[in-house]
Amino acid sequence: MTRWSFLLLMLIGPWSLLEAAHAHPMDDSHATTEQSCSFGMAKGEGSQTCHVPFPTDCLVADIPGTDKPWTTISKGGKTFCRFDDKATDWKTKITGSCNRCKSDHCSAQFVVRFDCSPQSG
Fold first, then answer.
1. Which residues of 88-119 are buried (b: 16+ CB within 10 A; e: fewer)?
2. Are 90 and 121 contacting, i.e. CB atoms less than 8 angstroms apart?
3. Which of 18, 32, 79, 112 has a 20 to 30 A CA-CA distance from 50?
4. Which phi and psi angles does 104 have, rounded to 5°?
């Protein structure tokens, strides 16, 4: 029994240390906050838009390891949703839009992560 306990400890010990190491953020990472807007539509209802609130003194966060905005679009029903290129500058205004709803009900949520840490430079 003690041999099995020792083997189990040898397997679990390094794994738990590895998990603890992943729990700590890297030095160059920043905490993020998120803002969102959402709406619902009935069948046949025309295109809709909503504006994601832009927190004061914040920048849109990039997906880690990329230069792309950290966003999520969730939708339900038969509609096509996207961030509106013409109404979004990613510095002061962000607008989500969906086409006409082609199912009984449609819904959409546009989520944007922001970096509100003190900016250098």
1. beeeeebbbbbeebeeeebbbbbbbbbbeeee
2. no
3. 32
4. -55, -40
37-64, pLDDT tens digit by residue?
999 999 999 999 999 999 999 999 999 9
Task: Provide the CB-side half-sphere exposure for 70 (13 A, CA).
Answer: 16
Task: Give strand pairing partners of 97.
Answer: 49, 82
Per-residue pLDDT band at 16 (split at 50, 70, 90) = very low
Q: From the DSSP assignment, how many helices (H) and strands (E) are in the chain?
A: 1, 7
**Alpha carbon separation from 33 to 15, 40, 54, 61 (Å, rounded):** 30, 24, 11, 9
What is the C-alpha separation between 42 and 98, in angstroms, rounded?
12
CB atoms within 10 A of CB 78: 14
